[in-house]
Design brief:
This protein is an all-beta fold. 0% of the residues lie in helices and 64% in strands. The protein has no helices and eight strands. The strands form two sheets. A five-stranded antiparallel beta sheet has the order 4-5-6-7-8, with no helix packed on it. It has a three-stranded antiparallel beta sheet with strand order 1-2-3, with no helix packed on it. β2 and β3 form a beta hairpin. The radius of gyration is 12 Å and the shape is globular.
Length: 78
Amino acid sequence: MHISESQDGSLSGTIDYPDQETSGILITAITYKDLTLHVESSSIQCSYDGVLNKDSSEIKGTWKQGGGGLVLILKRTS
């Protein structure tokens, strides 16, 4: 997942699926408030809701797609 903030403070991003050799799927909705991240992509009918931990090293949440949910931990990479 790639998320960036524009100069006006709005967020945008894309999702990659390396194991499926797919990248650049548009994120259609992103909110980040009170350490909580919400992401949606309408093209693949998925969502993610997670919370940033105390030391800001990871976001732990639930990825939902196709009626099922799965725990997903996001960590910053370079």
